[in-house]
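Section 5.1 Outputs to date
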Amino acid sequence: MMEQLPSLPAGLVLMKHEPRIVMAKEVLEIATSKVRVDYEFRNDSDEDITTLVAFPVPSYTFEQAVEAFFGDAKFDDFHLFVENEPKNFSVEARAYIGRHEITELLKRERIDISTFGHTSTKEGYDQPSADLQRVSKAAKRRLLAAGAFKGNNPNWRVEKKYYWTQAFPAHRIVRIRHEYSPVIGGSNTIALGFDTKKPNLTMDEKAYLEEYRSLCIDPVLERKLNQERRSDVRVPYNYVDFILTTANTWRTPIEDFTLIVDRPAPRKSLATHPTMKNEMLVSFCWNGVVEKIDPTHFRAHTIKFVPSKELHVGFIGVEQVNPEKY
């Protein structure tokens, strides 16, 4: 049975379309431990422009925060730099149950929205909310009646963004960098070991195949995985998503775009185990050349880039156990 945990993608966006500012350069570095993006924006107009820029966090629920495979769904370690200097930003968090907004209710009762009322997501479900514990009985009844909590579990969806006012002087380059720890998705395997062209694929096989195709595994990598795959080999993978199309809120195209993917080293606990072989492989969809610049880094580069879809980077772990030595 296929088991999959989601990755939460993110990307920088203008609060409104600004055709006078071009993304002259973007360098996107993706690793399982950190995503870092360096931008160079150029104002080609004769006027100085000041506008709001935002980093919208993917919406998340308490359940997603608890079950995040790796990383924090709240993206609380977001860091922003302008011209290599730390930049202050504001945070807006709003709460929804379905399409119904309960932001004002939670604020009125002083329930922190983004942290689910300061409820621990590391300890799992049914943990007491610090904010809920201190409200009056009448306030608690109002919150429960509104569906804000089910028992002790927060029941709202958070929509959060970091935003700031940014000046873009006429005919000047402005360098912006942000970095954060990604929320890593995971699946227990990829589509190996069955005929993908056979009729009447099972639901699990269809899901395997969809994920397999989303990684654009090339023939060389496929042969390697099939050579490694035996009854004693597992081929799970993790993945990091990134929203590329938010770049289209600026004037298109991105004049110069570089993607660098950092392949994790084998986990020491496995690499040093006498009964286990461990290797980490990388695959993602890219319409162009992907260059291996050193043993752990891959680079893709293009010019005049207009993103039409988001980025899905797979990190495939191959672990082989020798049962005779185990």
